[in-house]
Automatic annotation (TrEMBL):
InterPro entries: HATPase_C_sf (IPR036890), HATPase_dom (IPR003594), His_kinase_dom (IPR005467), PAC (IPR001610), PAS (IPR000014), PAS-assoc_C (IPR000700), PAS-like_dom_sf (IPR035965), PAS_fold_3 (IPR013655). It comes from the Bacteria. Keywords: Kinase, Membrane, Signal, Transferase, Transmembrane, Transmembrane helix, Two-component regulatory system. The chain crosses the membrane at residues 274-295. The keyword Transmembrane applies. Residues 1-21 form the signal peptide. GO terms for cellular component: membrane. Residues 398-448 form the PAC domain. This is PAS domain S-box protein. CDD domains: HATPase_UhpB-NarQ-NarX-like, PAS, PBP2_BvgS_HisK_like. Residues 332-375, 449-526 form the PAS domain. Residues 602-797 form the Histidine kinase domain. One of its GO terms (molecular function) is protein dimerization activity.
Length: 801
């Protein structure tokens, strides 16, 4: 009791002295020389660059700067007898740029880097800030980060020095990169990660929050941050002054600075300093004194309880061992694998029930039998060589297949594995037997099936192949290519199955891009692969090929594509010739249509000009006759009046014929022509029409203007003949470099899929006209819901401009 009281008095005095030391500081007295003192007198104000980051630099409620770096610099500048000019920067990069521009003189809390050495002169480290491993408080104590299993994630902020260090030196870790230290701790709280790595400064701030109270420090990654004072490289005198001032700063003050701004403790209501710490310690000592007596009284009882529990545990272990031994013997006796223990003289010392059943012997009949009874070809010399081979430590356990001789004289195919065993003072060779009768039958069936498949594949008029991918993101290879490749492309199958060859080595260079695109799409989507293009044979001949393959998933990300490469050269050449013929026919049709329109325009001009002039002269001659003979002969007056009416009708007929051949309104633009045609249709059919055309359109070539106008005429004719519509809407608009025409009616509609060949030549003519113009025609219709016709034509670049 006296020793405890004396200890308490000593601790109380230490606590009071600590509290007193916290309130008093010894003035710094660096040993400056004359040059240094003169430099400080010439620079009474030093520009201090700070990066605004807690707990190093932060603003208090009164907007004053606080923090570990601010307090350290105030103490050092006090020793230098100069005043600070605080310069705040958002990032370290901004601070480095300011130093290069000569805007700051020194900066605290920096780490020495190769890039920084070109800007700063660094002092000796004054503070070491480690990177700590944080886990749940209920964890199993300290953690060796090199021994963490792969299934445990470690959260770390990236980009950061810790993330680069862990990724480079600890390849056993599964890192989970997060944007901030807070996010790393939240990953541990939500159990999405097992541990988090962050520096001591950030951890001291975050541990003040109550939600992180269940976390604790479980390790250190061995990567400390060595903080230094940095001065500009062009100020060597200031660097020497800073080094002298740091040497004069007591180490105790640096530790107090760490405890004040980076305390690694959790928020508690009793977390105070000074006297209250001592008072708490005193109360704890009193509780310890009271508990000591109770502990001494119960010490002997607990010792007896522990001995009793140890004895009971030992008994339980013996019982479990005996039960485990019986279970092991039962498992061995009833195993599906035969087990034989063979002595060095090749005699059997043990055989389990599975081996006895396989070989047709009763219980215990195989013991002391020679192994040659089961394998007659195993003489003593061969046995001793096998024994020596298995006994060597470097040799692996050999495995092979034999035909064992059973008790009834029959043969049993068996898979044999050998293992060397030392038991007490004896040595044995353990023989494991597995009946492979069914496996041998399956292998024979498989070989027969493979031979049948190769025979079928070899006679298929095409190249049969299988493309395999072992897993997602892995390379693909041709697991099988039929022997027909020699006859089809001139290359043997084994040559095309090389990793650097494959079917892609046969593809024509101009078609290689489409081949790779189709194959990549099939691989990424795990879908069927179809491709058609040109290939080159070994003799340099160009052939057309068609690939058709079906994808099958085999589980665990493994996918195979089974397919055939057909030679379609003859069909493809015929198809190309047919396409070329169709293109030539379309060009001929376009030329004929152009000639027809030009002929219509010429006839319209001649009808309008020639007949118009003749009719005008005839009308003048009739008028002159009427003036000369007016009132003289009544019958002649009637004839002249009838002639004038006929001439007027003929005038109208000429205008109608010229307009039908080529409307003059087309010269005013496609928009005016469309509006004029719709209005004529409305007057002729009495069907209300809504017309919407833009005010300003680019000038269209005659072919495009006439084509759109003829399509409009045909569409309105179909509305009049078949639609039974009550209204029609016509819209013309421009979408970038495309001119669009839409004709919609509210008639009875029809099903476009039910059209029969030869039933609607008007629609076919419109489609062919749009193809000649390089445009697109689409018809949307449903029975009872009307019909909408869309025509799109691409404007020429110059006209569009």
């Amino acid at each position: 009791m006296k020793s405890l009281l004396s200890s308490f008095v000593v601790l109380l005095m230490l606590g009071v002295s600590t509290c007193w030391a916290d309130t008093t500081r010894v003035p710094l007295r660096p040993a400056f020389d004359g040059e240094q003192r003169a430099w400080l007198q010439a620079h009474p104000v030093l520009r201090v660059g700070l990066v605004l980051q807690a707990p190093w630099v932060q603003r208090g409620r009164d907007r004053q700067l606080t923090g570990a770096n601010v307090e350290l610099m105030e103490r050092l500048l006090e020793g230098m007898d100069v005043s600070p000019d605080w310069r705040l920067y958002p990032t370290l990069e901004a601070l480095d740029k300011a130093a290069q521009a000569g805007e700051v003189d020194l900066a605290p809390g920096l780490q020495q880097t190769p890039a920084g050495l070109r800007i700063w002169h660094y002092s000796m480290p004054y503070l070491r800030v480690p990177h700590l491993v944080v886990g749940e408080r209920s964890g199993s104590g300290a953690v060796d980060i090199d021994q963490l299993p792969l299934e445990q994630l470690v959260a770390v902020r990236a980009p950061s020095q810790a993330a680069e260090y862990l990724g480079r030196t600890h390849t056993n870790l599964r890192l989970h990169l997060v944007p901030s230290e807070r996010a790393a701790l939240q990953q541990v709280l939500s159990q999405e990660a097992s541990y988090a790595v962050l520096d001591e400064a950030s951890l001291s701030l975050l541990l003040r929050e109550s939600r992180f109270s269940i976390l604790s420090i479980v390790g250190d990654i061995g990567l400390p941050q060595l903080l230094r004072l940095a001065t500009r490289r062009d100020q060597p005198t200031l660097s020497a002054i800073v080094d002298q001032t740091l040497k004069a700063l007591p180490a105790r003050e640096l530790e107090e600075l760490r405890e004040a701004w980076m305390p690694l403790r959790y928020p508690q209501s009793s977390d105070f300093v000074g006297f209250w710490k001592t008072l708490t310690l005193f109360l704890g000592l009193l509780l310890l004194i009271g508990a000591t007596a109770l502990y001494r009284q119960r010490q002997q009882t607990r010792q007896l309880e522990r001995e009793l529990l140890a004895a009971r545990g030992e008994f339980d272990r013996h019982r479990q061992a005996a039960e485990s031994l019986r279970l092991s013997q039962f498992s061995i006796d009833n195993s599906t694998v035969g087990i034989l223990w063979v002595n060095w003289d090749s005699h059997l010392r043990y055989a389990n029930r599975a081996a006895e059943r396989m070989l047709g012997y009763g219980v215990g009949e195989l013991v002391d039998k020679p192994l040659g009874l089961l394998e007659p070809g195993l003489d003593m010399d061969r046995w001793l060589r096998l024994w020596k081979r298995v006994r060597e430590q470097d040799a692996g356990s050999p495995s092979f297949e034999i035909d064992c001789l059973r008790a009834d004289g029959s043969r049993m195919p068996a898979d044999v594995s050998l293992s060397f065993l030392r038991y007490r003072q004896a040595e044995y060779l353990v023989v494991f037997l597995s009946d492979v009768t069914e496996r041998r039958r399956a292998r024979a069936a498989l070989e027969e099936s493979e031979a049948r498949f190769k025979g079928i594949a070899g006679n298929v008029p095409g190249l049969v192949f299988r493309l395999e991918r072992a897993g997602p993101g892995q390379a693909v290879n041709f697991a099988y290519i039929s022997e027909a490749s020699q006859e089809m492309v001139g290359w043997p199958a084994h040559e095309l199955q090389r990793e650097d060859r494959g079917i892609r080595s046969l593809v024509h260079p101009q078609d290689l891009a489409s081949y790779l695109n189709s194959q990549t799409l099939a691989l990424e989507s795990e879908s069927d692969w179809d491709w058609q293009g040109r290939i080159q044979t070994h003799q340099g001949l160009v052939r057309w090929a068609d690939i058709r393959s079906t994808a099958r998933s085999l589980g665990n990300g493994r996918v195979v594509w089974d397919g055939i490469l057909w030679d379609i050269t003859e069909n493809k050449l015929a198809e190309l010739a047919l396409a070329d013929s169709r293109a030539r026919l379309r060009e001929l049709s376009a030329h004929l249509e152009s000639v027809r329109e030009e002929e219509k325009a010429r006839i319209a001009r001649e009808v309008h000009d020639e007949l118009g002039q003749v009719l005008t002269v005839l009308k003048l001659e009739t008028a002159m006759c009427e003036l000369a003979c007016a009132g003289q002969i009544p019958a002649l007056d009637e004839r002249l009046a009838s002639m004038k009416r006929l001439i007027a009708q003929l005038f109208q007929l000429v205008r109608d014929v010229a307009t039908a051949l080529r409307p003059p309104i087309l010269d005013a633009g496609i928009a005016s022509a469309i509006e004029w045609q719709v209005r004529r249709f409305e007057e002729r059919t009495q069907i209300p029409c809504l017309v919407e055309v833009p005010e300003h359109l680019p000038r269209l070539p005659d072919a495009q203007a006439i084509g759109l106008f003829r399509i409009l005429q045909e569409a309105l004719t179909n509305v009049m003949r078949h639609a039974g519509a009550h209204s029609v809407e016509v819209r013309l608009w421009q979408e970038q470099s495309t001119l669009c025409l839409a004709v919609a009616d509210d008639g009875k509609g029809f099903d476009p899929s039910q059209r029969r060949a030869g039933q609607s030549f008007g629609l076919v003519g419109m489609q062919e006209r749009m193809l000649m113009l390089g445009g697109e025609l689409r018809i949307d219709s449903l029975p009872g819901e009307g019909t909408t016709l869309y025509a799109r034509v691409v404007l020429d670049g110059e006209e569009n401009a």
